[in-house]
Give the backbone structure.
Amino acid sequence: MTTTPEKTALVNVTIDGVQVSVPPNTLVIRAAEQIGVQVPRFCDHPLLAPVGACRQCLVDIPDAGNGKPIPKPQASCTLPVAEGMVVETQVTSKVADKAQQGVMEFLLINHPLDCPVCDKGGECPLQNQAMSNGRGETRFEGVKRTFPKPINLSPQVLLDRERCIVCQRCTRFTDEIAGDPFIEMVERGAQQQVGIAPDAPFLSYFSGNTIQICPVGALTSAEYRFRSRPFDLVSTAGVAEHDACGAAIRVDHRRGKVMRRLAGNDPEVNEEWISDKDRFAFHYARQDDRITHPMIREDGELRPASWPEAFAVAARGLHAAGPSAVLTGGRVTAEDAYAYAKFARVSLGTNDIDFRARPHSAEEADFLASFVALNADVSYADLEAAPVVVLAGLEPEDEAATIFLRLRKASKRGTQVVALAPYSTRGLGKMNGRLVPTVPGEEAAALGSLKDAEFGVTKDAVILVGERLAQSHGALTAALELARTTGARLAWVPRRAGDRGAVEAGCLPTLLPGGRPVADASARIDAATSWGLESVPEKTGRDGDAIVAALVKGDLSGLVIGGVDPDDTSDPAATRAAIEAAGFVVSLEQRLTEVAALADVVLPVAPVDEKAGTFVTWEGRPRPFEGVFTKPGSLPDLRLLAGIADELAVLGQGSPLGFRTVAEVRAEMAAMGPWDGERPELVLGKEPKRPRAKAGAHALASWKLLLDRGSMQDGDANLAATARPAVARINQAAYDALFGLHDGPASVVLTGDRGSVTLPVEVADLPDAVVWVPANSFGRGVLADLASPGGSVTVKGAK
Amino acid sequence: MSIDVLTPVLTDNWDQDRSWTLAAYEEQGGYAAMKTALGTAPDDIITAVKDSGLRGRGGAGFPTGMKWGFIPQDNPKPKYLVVNADESEPGTCKDIPLMMASPHTLVEGVIISSYAIRANHAFIYIRGEVLHVVRRVQRAVQEAYLAGHLGKNINGSGYDLDVVVHAGAGAYICGEETALLEGLEGRRGQPRLRPPFPAVAGLYASPTVINNVESIASVPSIIRNGAGWFSSMGTEKSKGYGIFSLSGHVTRPGQYEAPLGITLRQLIDLAGGMREGHELKFWTPGGSSTPLLTPEHLDVPLDFEGVGAAGSMLGTRALQLFDETTCVVRAVLRWTEFYKHESCGKCTPCREGTWWLVQTLARLEKGQGSEDDLDLLLDQCENILGRSFCALGDGATSPISSSIKYFRDEYLAHLTTGGCPFDPAASTTFATTGASA
């Protein structure tokens, strides 16, 4: 395990004649790193428990610290330092060097040495260390062990057993870190191999990490296998765009094309792990429907246009349309969000802007404005240190994978996870968590009940609330109340990468950039001064749902929309109707989506790997990244908005935004700075109207699985094949009532106010009259095909 | 040589009618030691075992009483006794006959030992292939339960003990104590990283004593006759008696129970000499993992120190005797094939090394290769010995390096004749002038 340097007394050891002081319990192999000696190793991994299996890291111990030598060479990956210990590595000890060379020779006798066709060749620890710590020629003239190769461990992960040196890093990772021990060693001796149970493939959300930590080419992905050689690749650091966790990634590319993505190493955020979605889902930006040039609508058809023409047409259209609004989705970077926020205020003269392309509420907007903006109270490290972590409206394994891994690590060290959820998910089980069974809509009461001392929510606890809590009236207020009464720290965890940045950048009807409340005159003056304007609009804007309603009604006519999928919104049909009803629509999109196809002007925007930007994590931690590629026609949203703003200014509407590049926006954001004045109060509004539940109806619980039909996972069939199947879940009593003693797979027909869907059914420990379905794993998703947010459904058996 | 040199204690009742039954065992005074022990303070039993000088009979010779003393009695977790009855070493054949002939000796030892270390659960891990032994021990445990020697409040003493008889699944490695614990917990039989040692965190991460069958079976006699009686036998540092298992080209193979320090010359005399017309060529003192010895070592005292000084190990006192008809290369190849088959695969030197050793040896046995291959073999052994995770890898090298040390010329003879110069039939027990058995 990683040893955190402590302030306690250090231990003095001598390694290869060099004295070094390290914290107690440091392993010799790490202590040697401190003096620049790399002892060769395979099974050793700093984030996994020591195992001492490969024996590659043998060193000589002439003095164990007690004045006596250890007679046999010792595995330095399992041996902690002792005061006065003397270590001789391969650098100074012939015994250690011979031991290492011997082990290396053994490792290679059954290894196929097919480096020329192996994906790992060029970045292979076995290859590299065979060069540094092995002999040039083999003495083995016998017969190598062979296996048919490769075999599938999952649709994505392939195993070449001949190459495997059975270091057990992969099986240890799945067991210790991910908690998905789908793979295990089977057989023995030279036949020992990694295996799966016949009916249980390696379907872990984190399976790709095993490929990355495999020290040979035994594990490969169907995705990347045989695609390129490491020495042809250029690596650029990046930030994962699939959730709000900000996982560091490494993007490996060749000739303008991303070939693969790997986990970056950031101890403060994702350590060395990422989810399979962060690793494999990057083909969405290279699909056939990628927009490569601006388009404008002429005689009902979209036709290609030049950038100047498109900007001019967009500006003229918006100018003519009159009252206009801005809707953005979760993919925007903080810089782009800032540009949208400024564009709405400066060019469109409105606060009608909302990034929440999902069910939302006024209570949530208040919560974001009063509590979330500018808040950086909780970090990943705090999750590890907290005795209790409460989860409400958040299923980390699906919605925030990096948080899940951190909480699992924390739970193994004693942190108690308490989840307000409809049932005990597999993820909760892996965190050894405690379930507080919660009927959807009753989260506020459940949060209130956590004040009870038995839950241990004290000032050291952390409460994580997910964006889904917006759908449960009073829940965010209750969470804040719980935090205030107990002293526990609270953090809001949105699902998408751009969400937190959009809050900070002011993509809300109530909030200007830097957390400045629209309702606060001094905040408006502050913003206006910063932008060199007389004033900014003072009327509180419409939120997403209100913008949709106003477009349909005709109160709004123009719409600038970027990164919004109508099926994600609280009323997909209404959103579609609003886009059709709008007098003029400008769409900023990567691909020719349904929205883009309806727009009057379509402006192609750069995907994350073609621009610089910043995602802000749920913690409030900025995660800036630079573009992987520079492509002339691929521009960030902010550049396009600046182009439209310039043309609008020519028409006498608003003024130029004053920036054209990401760097300029960053400088402007830094100059503007955060709001240091008063924060608005959270006001619990009236409970919104809900469709009345029919008698016998089930409350609908739902969230998006990590791998589902999301458009940012398009283009990787192997990844999609590892997704969890769409099933409905009901409790045993409901199942028995529907199916009696029927044995075998069963399906249910769910019917809500928006449609009907048939899904296989499984039993879970749900409360009575609650059904769970995945939100986007069938059809167009729950909101389009089944029921409104907070709605209810009837459940019937299907044969 | 007089038969008086033998000290039958464990084997004393083997000739009794239906010696494995509770009735027969109790008729000979069985379970009296248990009753004595249950009326004694546990620490006094540990002291007695310490004073007796009993050393582990599974091969390593670690002082049994000291091992028991390592159990932290202030640890709130339960304590466990685990009996290692996974007797799988080629040549070793003492525990299986003991459990067949007198399983109650073991059960009584288990009760006393568990009481001493304050364990309320004990496990007997028996090699899975010997189903007849598993059944016999199961029946003995059942009889003990029925007689009130096991279960709640044993014989009214207030002491509770449950014994579980567990059958292994066919892995030599599970004789390694931590691999045994893994197997007992239902996991893959592979050795564990130490520390923590089993005495601190063994079975189910609780303090655990793991002892060989013969060690535990020796405890009742110590309680019955006293530590002084036990330590009066044997040599200065290797006290007591032990079962010596003679097998191979000897007239009367079998179990000879004698004080430690007896010599092979004495034992062969007791066994009626080598098979008629033949003479000893080489032998193992304690199973195939102990380096070979030759007739020049016939007078080495068979105790831990004596055999160690001769360059081998006392091991399990499995004396395999080979006469001059045996090809040492062939015998060593067979053993090496065994280690290759049984290597658990966890660590590189053992997993890959045994794979390679077999191929090199097989070539030599067929007369292929060159003298350089002998140096290669020795170098391979050097790279395995002391480099592997547990002692299995070390053991795999013993027959090879010791045989090359004593019989290098015989290896070379294979190369010069282009094959094995021996008639394999001549070494079999059905050879025309053969040993009986």
Notes: The mean pLDDT of chain A is 95. Chain A has five domains: 11-108, 145-286, 301-358+500-672, 372-494, 698-798. Residues 1 and 452 of chain A are 35 Å apart (CA to CA).
